[in-house]
Each structure stands twice: as structure tokens, then as C-alpha cells.
Amino acid sequence: MRAASSRSRIALISTYTHLSRDSIETMLRSSFPELQVDVFSITEILKRQRAWIAPNLHCVAKEFGRQIASGNISLRESYFRTTYAFTRLHAQMRRLIDPARHLFSFQMQSLYNTSVPGVPHFVYTDHAHLSNLHYQDFDRSTLRSPAWLALERTIYETATTVFTRSSDVATDLTRFYGISPDKVECVFAGSNVRVAETGAHNIDRYRKQRILFVGVDWERKGGPELLEAFTKILDEHPQAHLTVAGATVRSEARNCTFLGKVPPHELPRLYAESSIFCLPTRAEPFGIAFVEAMLHRLPIVGTRIGAIPDMVEEGVNGYLVNPGDPQGLRKALSRLLAAPETCQEFGQRSYEKAAQRYTWSAVGTRIRATILRRLEALSGLQQSAPAQSSRASAE
């Protein structure tokens, strides 16, 4: 891509601090080495605007007062999610992103609209708010106000392209928000954990019957259902073992290890020592742990929600159950524990699928191709506009 020297920068808008944020920034820099990247942190921008504090707190009380009182949302979280913060931030971005310098802008997540006139704008998200309606446990009283939902729709309407991490969110943007499928592209996501290529794993690994759960939110990730299923599995497979990484759990269940919070650099070892990965989550925007497990050649047991059916094909690299179904979990896990050959076969297919689809280099290749195509199309439209205007004047 040849970029004019005056427009040789990307405006990268970050909406939160997370391992994925660093991965996305690295991906974008690697995908567009000919451009410089200016990073704008939404959190820092909002913190610096002291004049916004009083009116935004008024909006917090009005829009989230009941949810804060009931414990459904924290004061800090609600402060960043008001319609006031949304609209003021949208206006503020015009002072930060320069059409004369920035070739395009790239926004992580869909919590705000950071588009600026004259700058092609791309959004990369793993979730749309109305996607929550798919989850059986979703409390509809926590649904955002019609005013906020109308603002959310503008995120997608003003974007040149909306990139999603999963096909279900891409579908929801059309179904719930009326966004044209031509503006939406599922490009998936990569792993935030380094994976060393070790080749096909010996079947002895899968004979060890070690099940791994990775997740901080024990309840939402389906931990109680997994523990209930596992205690019954021990009747059939007394040597089976369950390791829980991330969540803080108090339990004296037999053959279980509860590690609590685990540093990211420790996760590869846990994946490599395991035979099966199980995360029976009840609500999940994406689920990066599934990708990490797949890249570590593990068969997967997950639930039929969100992005998980994109990753796990029934009977191909794992099994899917309905959320909140400990009996289904027991059956699926027992099938794998009894068949190490199947575990090995499923694990290899997991790896092949992840290596092709779920790496940041693959994601970056897809994103670059689409952005270049969109920029070229926009450039063609701009060049043809004067000619069309001249013809109209002559007529």
C-alpha cells in the first residue's frame, strides 16, 4: 500500500487494558509495517476530562442507579458506560484524530463510537450488547436503555467495516441492528498465550485423564456444573483429575486441584499437561481459552453458545452440550476419558483448525486485505466525484 506522507498513520483506539489489547496492537503494527500507529486510550481520555465528572455522575445515577444498588454493576464500570460519556467522547475524538494525518482509524470493541468524518473507520469487536439476549441467564432488567442502544447502533452504521471475532456476532449485527452484511466480516481472533510447536502428541498424554478448566468467573463459566459432573465421573473413571485455573474455589472435592489466579506464562504448561479441555460456559463473548487449548492439541467440551460452535465441531474436535447441563457434561467427558485415541485424534484436529483460523498473523492477513480493498474503493469514489459533479454542471 502506498500512503501519502501526510497520511501515514493509523489511529488505534483502545477501550480497555487486557492481554488481547496488546495482541491486537501487535497484530496491527505487523500487518501494516509501512504505517505508524498512534494509540488512544479511551480510559485515559475519560479520566483526563475533569469537567465531565459531575454531569457524568448525574448520568450514572439516572441510568445505572438501580443496577448499582442491586450489585449488578459497579460505580466505576457504569461511569464509563453512560450515554453522556459516549456522546462527549465521540465529539472529543475529532480533536485527536486528524484526517490530514491518519489514513484510517481502528477501534477495539464496541463500547463507543470513535469515528471521525473524513477518516475511514474500522471496528473490531467480540460482542454486541443485544447478543446477550441469546443467553438463558441474562437478566433483561440490565439491558441498556433505548437511548444507549440507539448510540450503539451508530458505532456500526458509521464504520467502514465491522470486523467480528465470531460468526454469531456478525449475524447479530444484521439481525438486531439492521447492519448490511456487506459491512460486516468475521475474521476471528488469535491466542494471547505463546504456543511452542511440538508436533503430534504421544497418546500417553491423553491416557492420563486430566481435565483442565481455565476461567476466572467460576459461576458464569459453568464451573459448578462441571464440578457436579466430575464428582459423578469418578464412579466410572476413578483416576480422572480436574484442574481449575483462574477461579478461586473452595471445595474439598476428590481428585481436584484449584489453583486460583494463574500468571499467563504458566498457562502453556497446564495446557500441555492436560488431556481434555472443558469450559461449559453459560455466557461468553468469545472465549480465548478455547483457542489456546486448541493450539495445545486438546479435545474440547464446550457449550452451544456464542463463538464456541465456530471453534468446536461436534464429533470432529470435541463435543458440545447445552449450558447448565451437568448430565450432558458427564456423558461427553466420560466418552473422551474412555477413548484416548479419540482424544488424540480430536486434539490434532483442534490444532489444525486453530493454526489455520485462530492466529493473530492469520487475523492480520484478513484484516489488511479488507482494509486495503475498502480504502481503494473509497479512493475511487473520491476521484470520480469531481468528474460526476462537472458532468452534472455541464448538463
Description:
It contains 15 helices and 12 strands. The protein has helices at 19-31, 42-48, 53-70, 75-79, 83-96, 146-158, 167-177, 204-207, 223-236, 267-272, 288-295, 308-311, 326-337, 340-357, 360-394; strands spanning 9-14, 36-41, 102-108, 121-125, 161-164, 184-186, 210-215, 241-246, 256-260, 276-278, 300-303, 318-321. The chain has 2 domains: 5-190 and 359-394, Rossmann fold; 204-357, Glycogen Phosphorylase B (Rossmann fold, 3-Layer(aba) Sandwich), CATH 3.40.50. β5, α7 (167-177) and β6 (184-186) form a beta-alpha-beta unit. By secondary structure, the protein is α/β, with parallel strands linked by helices. The radius of gyration is 23 Å and the shape is globular. Residues 387-395 have low confidence and may be disordered. Helix content is 46%, strand content 15%. α1 crosses α15 (360-394), α9 packs across α13 and α11 (288-295) crosses α14 (340-357). The chain starts with 8 loop residues before the first strand and ends with a helix. The protein has a 6-stranded parallel beta sheet with strand order 2-1-3-4-5-6, with helices on both faces. A 6-stranded parallel beta sheet has the order 9-8-7-10-11-12, with helices on both faces.
